[in-house]
Amino acid sequence: MTGSSEYVVWYDEYDEERDRHRVGGKNASLGTMMGAGLPVPPGFAVTTNAYDTLRSHDDLTVLINDLIGEIDFDIPTGLQAVSRRIRSEIEKLAVPGEIEEAVFTAYEQLCRRCGVSDVGVAVRSSATAEDLPDASFAGQQDTYLWVHGAENVLAHVAKCWSSMFTDRALAYRHEMGFDDQAIAMSVGIQKMVDPRASGVAFTLNPLTGDRTQVAIDASWGLGEAVVSGEVTPDNYLVDKVLREVVERVISDKHIEIRRTDSGVETLEVEAERRTSQCITDAEICDVAAMARRAEKHYGCPQDVEWALDRHLPDGENIVLLQARPETVWSQKARTSVSRGTYDPLGSIVSTLTAPLKAEKAN
Amino acid sequence: MTDKRFPSPFEIETPEGAEGWEELYPYSVLFSEGRREYEDSTFWFMDSMHWGWAMSPWDADHLMYAIASLSQYNSRHYLIPPANGIDFRILNGYPYFSPVTIDDGATIEARAPQFMERAGHYFANWDDLYESWLDKVKENIAALESIDFSPLPETEDMEVITSGRGVGSGWDLQAEYHRFQDLAQKIWQYHFEFLNLGYAAYLDFFGFCKEAFPSIPDLAVAKMVAGIEVDLFRPNEELKKLAQKAIDLGVADAFAKHDDVDAVHAALSGEAGQQWLAAWEEVAEPWFNFSSGTGFYYYDKTWMQDRSVPYSFVHDYITKLQAGEDISRPMEAIRAERDRIVEEYSEFLASDEDREAFQGKLGLARTVFPYVENHNFYIEHWSMSVFWKKSRELGSMLVKEGFFVEPDDIYFVRREEMDTLLFDLYTAWAVGANPAGPHHWPPIIAKRRKIVDALEASKQPNALGPPPAVVTEPFTIMLWGITEDSIDGWLSTDSDDGSVSGMAASPGTAEGPARIVQSADDIGQVQEGEILVAPITAPSWAPVFSKIKATVTDIGGLMSHAAIVCREYGVPAVTGTGDATTAIQTGDMIRVDGNTGKVTKI
Predict the structure, then answer these.
(1) How far is A29 from chain B (nearest CA, A)?
(2) Which of A145, A312, B4, B278 has the greatest number of C-beta atoms within 10 Å?
(3) Angle subtended by helix axes B105-124 and B195-212, to nearest 10
(4) What's the pLDDT band for A358 if we cut at 50, 70, 90?
């Protein structure tokens, strides 16, 4: 993917030093994960430069400042009215041509990459403040799912910009004493995952605690079926070092949860697909490798949610949805095999005396 | 463990046409009434890994030399705490082994410090001792080469008179024969000087890995020790160079008719061809003292003796080179992969102490590895090639003297009988009368040949006697891959779908037509893309591993030749199946799963 510019930064081209200050916390996190080999669904950030350009083209700043100046924060209804007014002013502004073009081009590239026209995307706001790059704006920004088409995407970008001026955001900044004009807004555009199969992965064997293995559960469709226990998933064990599937149990996967035109539905799986392996060995190894990278990135065993997207090309179709630390084995003390001291000959004597220990461990 | 048992050695019938087979072997290796109580209550397994074919009397000597030496190092040199030697018998021409385990804890404990001192000396000085081992082995080979089996002279040289020597050629011939057998036995003493310790070090590393990483595949452990240059691969590497040389010299076409050595040589009669032959001669000694079989049988031919085998490999390599293939062993890649695997598993260890132990054990496993591999070239191939060559010389001399019809008759005489035969020859020469041998031996040899043929055609059981509750003898597990599970497998009736299982020796899965290769003679039949199914494989078969999709063997553990080579070539392998060569037919479509050890017909 190429084409990062003043207004657009692709997640897989994210450069910490160059982009961190202009894509907001959420986008920066996605870009960092991509850079660490943790393949979040593909997408791009519309940079804070875009909003800066927008507001410099008009008297927007002045208007907003005037409106904010009138707010009496003690009267909630007044705050709501001003918020509505500012948001509508922002959303009805004509987006400058260069920004429109940058967003349209990037969206088209994303569609091409996914092999789908008008690919469904999530549009999310990702706010930042110049002197508070890490300030938490959690829950104060908008997310729009399954947005289709370039025009629609652009309209939702504007909605994200305006979301800086929700009543909650205005009240929050007032309380915290943040300067409203020092806040900048970046927007993330990311492919909605449409999984052919999905599941979870542990970066250790949950039965034995063996950290050289990745245990993967996988079933057809969306991962909710696996997580909720509605379906018995296929189970695979992958050796992390050899990078090979060393054990597999294929289950009868009778249902799958899929997104259809009418929403998210639970569907019967047709007979021949029920008992067939829902991802290939190569894909299993890709999932394991990704889980392993998450483990290395975060420095402890991970419990990962993943999906195999039906639109992305082979080799790029495994995406990471969520990673969190594994909690059961990670908290147990690990036993030392050398028992503290290494005595080469004594050890050989023990081995010769009990060779079965070695062999039976198979 | 099931309560079934294998047949008693005393209820095994003599195959039709093999009546009187017992006279082929010394009394001491036969099951007999005198030791019946012990023999009948003991578990014996057939070593078809090394001696998968019925042995002639001359072949059987090497079995006896080998197993006595192996045992002696366990029991008297190093005092391996839980193991003495391996008791052995010959039944219907096949060897049966029984490990002599030490069960008594106090004895094991008492032997441990002695073992540590003795083995410790070898481990601590391994490289130096190995260097001097190489010198000793080469010296032994040179001594074997110097053995003189010339016919007895009409009259002694004048020099014998003038020097006042006092003994004559008849005495010399007998002394040469004694020296010959002494050197032959020495071959096997040297063979086992390091081997048991080498396996112990490997087993120790293996055990550590299995404890630290309960689910680690066997092959990952083996890969950590791979990628060391060893002499055992040299013969094959030299053939690759000769293939390139044939192309460079423009004589590649000469190998089109590789199975007709004379035709190849006719095509090499020009100047360039002579240059190629000179290049062959330059490396033939010692590298082509390489048997097409295990080197344990008199009919195993070396590459020097029968060039059709190496010429067919040269032809294969030429074809690959001309197709632009890279035929070099991917050593860089093997080493890079090895280092990656070591580093990554090391990271998973719980503590720095564990990492130190892991590195120490790995280091020792790697130290012993060149010997574990190379002894096979220096002993089984080079030393044994010279032994067989000298045996043929003696056989030829005895044809001239009228004792034998053909040189190979020698292999049907027992070594102690040869002593008597040579005394007969000497006496007649001394007396100036007729020896008895020319009338005595030919009918005996003719009969014995028929017996060996009948034994060869027979199928003998994998094991005899009561199965052991547990297998604890370390070398039985390591070298022969014999565990309670494999014994159970032999006891259970063959599955009717023809599927077999064994050790997952090299990972990956493959499907294709099976090719049963009973011996080196059939190796030329192997086609590209087939799955090799053999009792065992030999190092000289190396070139076929680049043709085949997978390997299945009847016998062999993780360190067996097939396992090691397949891992290097990245070809799946299942070893130690017990009966793949009988359960599977050439042409059967089979699926080999080198991750689980399963072989199924599809």
Answers:
(1) 27
(2) A312
(3) 110
(4) very low
Q: Are A92 and A54 in contact (CB under 8 A)?
A: no
- Is A357 a residue whose pLDDT tops 50? no
Half-sphere exposure of B495 (CA within 13 A, CB side): 15
Query: What order do you get walking across the sheet with A302-309 strand by strand?
Result: A244-249, A234-239, A213-220, A195-202, A302-309, A318-325
Beta carbons of B502 and B578 less than 8 angstroms apart: yes
SS3 state at A185? strand
For A241-264, what is each residue's pLDDT tens digit?
Answer: 989 898 888 889 999 998 888 888
**DSSP letter string over B286-351?**
HHT--BSS-S-STTPPBTTT-THHHHHHHHHHHHHHHTT---S--HHHHHHHHHHHHHHHHHHSSS
Of A240, A336, A352, the CB nearest to B81: A352
Bridge partners for B503 per DSSP? B575
Q: The tokens 């003719």 sit on which residue?
A: B446
Distance of CA B586 to the CA centre of its chain: 24
pLDDT for A132: 56
The partner residue sitting opposite A348, judged by closest CB among B201, B351, B595, is: B201
Contact A361 B477 (CB under 8 A): no
Across the interface, which of A337, A345, A354 has its CB nearest the CB of B212? A337
Question: In the predicted model, is pLDDT for residue A64 greater than 60?
Answer: yes
Listing DSSP states for A7-64 in one string gives SEEEGGG--HHHHHHHHHHHHHHHHHHHHTT--PPPEEEE-HHHHHHHHHHSSHHHHH
A-chain CB neighbours of B478 within 8 Å are 355
- In angstroms, rounded to a whole number, what is the distance separating the alpha carbons of residues A354 and B82? 9
Interface A-B, measured as beta-carbon pairs within 8 A, has a size of 132
Q: Mutate which of A285, A359, A360 to disrupt the B interface (most B C-beta within 10 Å)?
A: A359
Which candidate from A210, A346, A354 shows the least CB-CB separation from B213?
A210
> Which range has the top average pLDDT, A5-19, A247-261, A333-347?
A5-19
What is the bridge-based pairing of β-strands B509-516 and B531-534? parallel
Q: What is the pLDDT of residues B60-71, one digit of tens each?
A: 999 999 999 999
What angle do the packed helices A48-57 and A16-35 form, to 10 degrees? 140
Angle formed at CA B136 by CA B134 and CA B141, multiple of 5 degrees: 95
- pLDDT above 70 as % of chain B: 97
Query: Which are the contacts of B441, defined by CB distance < 8 A and separation ≥ 6?
Result: B403, B404, B409, B413, B421
Smallest CA–CA distance, residue B252 to chain A, in Å, is 40
Question: Touching check for A138 and chain B: CB below 8 Å?
Answer: no
User: Does the beta carbon of A300 lie under 8 angstroms from any beta carbon of chain B?
Assistant: no
Tell me the range of B270-279, B498-507, B533-542 where mean pLDDT is highest. B270-279
A348 to chain B, any CB pair closer than 8 A? The answer is yes
Does B215 sit within 8 Å of A213, measured CB to CB? yes
Q: How far is CA A225 from each of CA A220, A254, A284, B481, rounded to the nearest angstrom? A: 8, 10, 18, 45
- CB-side neighbour CA atoms (13 Å) of B192: 25
Task: Tell me the per-residue pLDDT of A15-28, one tens digit each, with 9 for 90 and over.
Answer: 989 998 899 888 98
CB within 8 Å: B115 and A349? yes
- Report the gap between the CA of B32 and the closest CA in chain A (Å): 32
Asked if the bond preceding B7 is cis, omega within 30° of 0, the reply is no
Average pLDDT for chain B: 90
**Is 0.95 exceeded by the ipTM?**
no
Q: Do A210 and B341 touch (CB under 8 A)?
A: no
CB contact under 8 A, B360 and A344: yes
The single-letter DSSP state of residue A351 is: H
User: B425-457 pLDDT, tens per residue?
Assistant: 999 999 999 999 999 999 999 999 999 999 998
